[in-house]
Backbone:
């Protein structure tokens, strides 16, 4: 096991190195002089010079890259151009909100997706099964920012039962916190719910065909007991897979969803940085999300090995 | 003769057309393609023409889907939006298909290139897809071409990975090993043996990428880093409708339905192609 962990850790290193390099290079995609574009067309020469110095654009690329890595080693991601504060500080402040939202969406995904998939498998080729398929297809086809707007119209405006946007910290009002997470959570989770339901269904169908399930049924165990004792453990594998995939989708989605619902998380920080051409924040935000994803995938791989010992040896049998 | 005909397994087209979901997808996607191709005929007004005396009209005969906050005809903007959405999606499919195939084949065939190429792809895939596309599109500036570049950069690694794994399998086949041993040129082997055998998963993947690209383009437009207004993209239309959700929710409703229908059609086509061309993938994806 220790060897497996070490090997996975080492293989993540070159990817992490490249991730930092890509994040640092985003600004160089800007056509022309980034300093002029960032300062705005009507900026004076002095203002342009100021931006250039702030971004270190007056120094050669290699030197700048060195400075970026040196900063990174100290946990310093540079200074935001718009917020007048360190990038790392802004990210650390916003991250918990996004994690709360992503966590809530993941909870919805697992709580709805797994039972839906299991029921679809137990009632394969019935109306229930078809309904799950339709929801799953809608999940991958409906744009979530549009779904958000429609949910806001339905529940925030017409029915007026849920807030149409905004965020209340858990510490201030736990009930209000849940209420303002429901619509954005559902908007974010729909895609994953469909994905998880379909994978759970496929896994369940495979498991239900196994001999030991037939044996358990034959000796008279009721269906729910068979499912609970034997099938659930197998279903854990796809759940872990989807959780791993979902996290990236959730972080991506949060940029749009947090903007639509005015939630002050990392996603909205990045969206406003993109509009304001606040490159240090864009770079830092990209880096932090990518590093989180790389580490999460690492955890997912390790979890596989724990849940399913076959993974360590030769993949799936 | 007739007997032999009867015993032959059903042809590919036959199997595709008896796949119910594939046919549904084909119909849905066909409708959107028809909208795009015949946009000039279908549109009842110029998509960017404003008419301040006819703002926020509800659907009626003169304005099939009503008008928006500038009095522009929503139906006409919708059909022209189909043209742009599909054009961008298709361009992404072409760029991604070519780049992903070249990178995937090289990585799968030449063992020395595998490490560096795939680690770079892994690094690009480490970023949340939409987020990276938004950052690239924002850096390059809002335009249709830059949207294609940004989305291709994001989806190429995913394509390369699939082509590579297909190439890896084919490479070890006896006939390829025989070709290598008998001194065939590498390019010939790649073109003649490896590429054709990697096509099935590639086509399936590209169909899904078409769907992702249409969805992602609408997000770029919605956030203001796609083709700039007043260009009638579906994302732009939803972004403009966002300001009038209370008074005129229809502004945002129609373009969203158009995106969903397009993406649904493509997803169904992808599911159908996967079931027929590449049945091994079926279990994994559910």
Residues:
């Amino acid at each position: 096991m220790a060897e497996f962990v070490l090997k996975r850790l080492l293989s993540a290193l070159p990817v992490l190195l490249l991730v930092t390099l890509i994040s640092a290079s985003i600004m160089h995609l800007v056509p022309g002089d980034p300093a002029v574009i960032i300062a705005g067309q009507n900026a004076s020469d002095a203002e342009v010079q100021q931006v250039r110095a702030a971004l270190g654009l007056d120094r050669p690329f290699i030197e700048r890259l060195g400075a970026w890595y040196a900063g990174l080693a100290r946990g310093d991601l540079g200074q935001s151009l718009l917020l007048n504060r360190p990038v790392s500080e802004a990210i650390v402040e916003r991250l918990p909100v996004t994690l709360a939202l992503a966590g809530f969406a993941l909870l919805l995904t697992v709580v709805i997706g797994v039972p839906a998939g299991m029921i679809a498998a137990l009632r394969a080729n019935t109306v229930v099964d078809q309904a799950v398929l339709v929801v799953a297809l809608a999940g991958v086809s409906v744009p979530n920012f549009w779904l958000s707007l429609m949910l806001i119209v339905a529940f925030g405006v017409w029915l007026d039962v849920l807030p149409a946007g905004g965020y209340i910290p858990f510490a201030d009002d736990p009930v209000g916190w849940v209420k303002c997470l429901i619509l954005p959570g559902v908007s974010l989770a729909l895609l994953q719910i469909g994905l998880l339901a379909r994978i759970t269904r496929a896994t369940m169908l495979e498991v239900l065909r196994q001999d030991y399930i037939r044996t358990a049924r034959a000796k008279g165990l009721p269906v729910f007991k068979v499912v609970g004792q034997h099938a659930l453990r197998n279903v854990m594998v796809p759940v872990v897979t989807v959780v791993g995939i979902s996290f990236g989708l959730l972080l991506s989605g949060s940029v749009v969803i947090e903007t639509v619902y005015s939630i002050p998380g990392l996603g909205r920080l990045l969206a406003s940085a993109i509009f304001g051409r606040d490159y240090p924040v864009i770079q830092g935000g990209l880096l932090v999300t990518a590093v989180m994803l790389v580490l999460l995938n690492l955890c997912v791989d390790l979890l596989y090995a724990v849940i399913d010992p076959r993974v360590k040896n030769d993949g799936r049998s | 003769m007739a007997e032999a005909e009867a015993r032959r397994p059903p042809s590919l087209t036959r199997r595709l057309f008896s796949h119910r979901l594939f046919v549904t997808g084909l119909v849905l996607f066909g409708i959107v393609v028809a909208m795009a191709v015949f946009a000039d005929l279908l549109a009842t007004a110029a998509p960017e023409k404003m008419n301040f005396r006819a703002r926020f009209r509800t659907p009626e005969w003169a304005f099939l889907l009503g008008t928006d906050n500038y009095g522009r005809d929503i139906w006409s903007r919708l059909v022209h939006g189909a043209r742009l959405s599909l054009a961008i999606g298709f361009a992404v499919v072409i760029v991604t298909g070519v780049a992903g195939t070249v990178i995937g084949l090289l990585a799968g065939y030449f063992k020395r290139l595998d490490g560096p190429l795939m680690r770079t792809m892994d690094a690009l895939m480490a970023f949340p897809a939409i987020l990276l596309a938004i950052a690239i599109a924002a850096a390059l500036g809002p335009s249709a071409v830059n949207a294609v570049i940004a989305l291709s950069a994001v989806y190429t690694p995913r394509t390369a990975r699939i082509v590579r794994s297909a190439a890896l399998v084919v490479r070890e086949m006896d006939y390829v090993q025989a070709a290598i041993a008998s001194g065939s040129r590498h390019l010939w082997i790649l073109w003649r043996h490896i590429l054709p055998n990697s096509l099935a998963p590639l086509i399936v993947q590209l169909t899904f990428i078409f769907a992702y690209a249409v969805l992602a383009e609408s997000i770029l437009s919605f956030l203001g880093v796609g083709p700039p207004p007043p260009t009638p993209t579906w994302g732009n239309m939803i972004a403009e409708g966002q300001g009038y959700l209370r008074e005129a929710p229809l502004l945002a409703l129609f373009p969203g339905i158009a995106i969903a229908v397009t993406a649904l059609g493509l997803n169904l086509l992808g599911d159908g192609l996967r079931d027929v061309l590449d049945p091994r993938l079926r279990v994994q994806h559910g």
